[in-house]
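Thanks for the sequence, V.! I ran Helix-turn-helix transcriptional regulator right away. Repeating your input here for the record:
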Amino acid sequence: MLNQPYGQVQISYENYIRENPTLVNILNNGPCVTWILDMRTLQFSFLSNNVKDILGYDNKNFEEQGLAYFNQIVHPDDVAPTWQLVMKKWECLMALPPYQRTAEKMNISYRIIQPNGNIMQVLEQSSVLQLDDRGHVTHVMGVCSDISLLEKLENKIAANGPVAEKIMAGKVPADPVNQVILSKRELQIVKLIAAGYKSRDIAQELFISFHTVNTHRQKIIEKTNSKNTSELIQYVMTQKLIDFE
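Predicted structure:
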């Protein structure tokens, strides 16, 4: 990843983050750790400051050591399998034509050991955020969530009989997940929310009523199955429903 010659990039995410404090505030107070990794240096261009609240570690360690710090907190039994899976997924990603790479999503689950000795199961979801003019991946964006309680629940379900075992084994097909489709107006509103606009500001910007804005906001929250604005912004960014331009 570091040995290839990189070309020009369109967006400097370090500058983008500095210029959008409202968006940063939303991500900092979200339910997941949100990060943007510069693949050219393996350092974080952005890391939400809720790392300690969610994972138990200080942001400073990640900011100073970059991606390498994960090796120190991942459960020893999970380090090798996790990196093998990451490299396999990366090879598959790079085998795709450049124009298809930004559409790929990667989900990986592993355990970390918290400073207090507790073991936490986390789910890391990431996608390509930017390519350079040569098609090389320069930035990846991801979120990291604590799924320890979900893991325990699944273990209980698996122990509750043959039907549950079939579900856990994947022999009973799950219901298909409907793709979230936002209207043109809803996307306009989401972009303005991400830029820090309040409902009254959005109403003035789009020449619609305050009530109409709030109605759209409620529908957007319901469509994306988000609990609040923070989750909404994280969802639309990871799903690439909005851009950074």
